[in-house]
Design goal:
This protein is an alpha/beta fold and about 450 residues long. The protein has helices at about 10-20, 30-40, 60-70, 100-120, 130-140, 180, 185-195, 210-225, 265-285, 295-300, 325-340, 355-365, 385-395, 405-420, 435-445; strands spanning about 50-55, 75-80, 90-95, 95-100, 145-150, 170, 200-205, 225-230, 235-240, 245-250, 255-260, 310-315, 315-320, 345-350, 370-375, 400, 425-430. It is built from 15 helices and 17 strands. Helix 2 (about 30-40) crosses helix 4, helix 2 runs parallel beside helix 5 (about 130-140) and helix 12 packs across helix 13 (about 385-395).
Length: about 450
């Protein structure tokens, strides 16, 4: 626990106060709450320009790549993403490192005096996500940052992040997810996510279904924004698997960039890098001037995305991935075949109750020899018993093991992956961001350390 600050609050106290509010899975449609709060704070989100990142899959990885590229160009950056793997401090990042627990407490102390006022005015408490978003904006303004990379939490138009001053928006692939909140068709979801598009903005759009692209283009035309489309104005020219990642040739908005090493696996990450590069070109020069290729190389080479096909152990290889919907599981399965040569891969899978568990498992079945069904620490987790029943229908009962405890599930998977040899064997832990974070905590066991400035080292 972090020692109490001048106001007497500890990090544990702040976490408890935030968690007592409505969880981020409960969307409060409308920007009234965040707007009231940021107004009382002096609108800190207007003191820096942002790259606003939305979409169904790839947001966090793309935000991290944008951050790495901007940092390579010697800009002081802030990054706001969600959810987190291990600690809530991961969501608010300065200069590429999560803020310390002490800095997190200080950010909360800055907004705390106004929370009751806004709660009373709204007739409801501000949500966890609304308060955390305001904390991030305040931390970025205080730093101060020269650029912020802000990931949408849920949706777009009514997301609490949609008060930022963003000359550039990046729209990653849009598909079905969070249907209870965003709508049950991809068109409805696309309209909600396209709600981040503002007048005079340059919108960098990843490859989309035709129906989605039409909605994005219509929104841009209605408000007077410009759209750059992957596959037309920019895109991936070539990609080759390399040790520890992949080598890319990318077409940017202002020219081509060759021999770029990206230390992330899978074709989807190449496309994320393409979107990120175009967004940075747009942010730094409106996409009119080619960036220094050596600096671009440095930025991509320094990119990371924890919990996304991350190797946690060797002999046998233990991978963790935060895929939590059908599209994410599809990309994961393709990336495994692309980047790894497993002769036997055992899955450890836990899925949230509001997700398409059958769809996720169906995408993973071709690459898994066996699946160990378990649960994550999330109260929203589907019970292992029910998930096991679904898995048996897809894998066959003889390829499914159900274990209630994640640690036991991982141990079982490792033992069964090894068999008689550890050559060409592996374990994949996936199904939700929560289980990915649980696995990282279980297998890495390395507590964060902080330097004298409060940055995670």
């Amino acid at each position: 626990m972090f020692p109490p600050g001048d106001d007497g609050l500890s990090f544990t106290d702040v976490e408890a106060e935030l968690l007592a509010r409505a969880p981020e899975s409960n969307l409060e449609p409308g920007l009234e709450g965040i707007s009231r709060l940021t107004t009382l704070l002096g609108d800190p989100q207007t003191s820096f320009p942002s790259v606003h990142v939305a979409g169904t899959n790839g947001k966090t990885s793309t935000a991290r790549i944008v951050d790495s590229l901007l940092s390579a160009f010697e800009l002081r950056t802030g990054r706001y993403t969600s959810p987190h793997l291990q600690s809530v401090t991961e969501r608010i990042v300065l200069d590429g490192a999560p803020i310390s627990e002490g800095a997190f407490v200080a950010a909360y102390a800055d907004v705390a005096p106004y929370l009751g006022l806004v709660d009373d005015a709204l007739g409801r408490p501000l949500t966890f996500f609304e308060v955390l978003t305001a904390m991030a904006f305040g931390a970025f303004a205080d730093a101060p940052v020269a650029a912020a990379v802000v990931e949408v939490g849920l949706g777009g138009a009514w997301d609490a992040t949609n008060v930022v001053s963003a000359p550039v928006a990046a729209l990653l692939p849009i598909g079905l997810d969070h249907q209870d909140w965003l709508g049950d068709t991809v068109e409805l979801i696309a309209a909600e996510k396209a709600g981040i598009i503002r007048p005079d903005q340059l919108v960098v759009m990843a490859q989309q279904d035709v129906a989605v692209a039409e909605i994005v283009m219509r929104r841009a035309a209605d408000v007077g924004a410009t759209v750059a489309r992957e596959g037309l104005e920019f895109g991936v020219l070539d990609r080759r698997v390399a040790v520890g990642g992949q080598l890319l040739n990318l077409r940017g908005l202002s020219g081509d960039y060759a021999d770029l090493f990206l230390p992330l696996h899978g074709a989807h990450q190449a496309h994320n890098a393409s979107v990120a590069l175009a967004a940075v070109e747009a942010f730094l020069g409106g996409g009119r001037e080619r960036l220094d290729p050596d600096v671009v190389r440095e930025g991509l080479a320094n990119a990371s995305s924890p919990g996304r096909l991350e190797v946690l152990r060797r002999s046998p290889t233990v991978l963790v991935d935060a895929a939590h919907n059908v599209a994410g599981a599809h990309a994961l399965a393709q990336a495994i075949g692309d980047a790894f040569d497993f002769q036997r891969l055992v899955g450890v899978v836990a899925v949230l109750a509001d997700k398409d568990a059958a769809g996720i498992l169906a995408e993973l079945e071709p690459v898994l020899a066996e699946v160990v069904i378990t649960r994550s620490s999330s109260p929203r987790a589907l019970t292992p018993e029910r998930l096991g029943e679904i898995a048996a229908q897809i894998f066959g009962a003889d390829r499914v093991v159900v274990m209630d405890d994640l640690a036991d599930a991982v141990d079982h998977a490792v033992a069964h992956a090894e068999g008689e040899s550890i050559v060409g064997t592996g374990v994949l832990v996936t199904g939700s961001v929560t289980v990915a974070g649980d696995a990282v905590r279980l297998l890495r066991r390395d507590p964060p350390s902080f330097d004298e400035d409060g940055y995670d080292t």
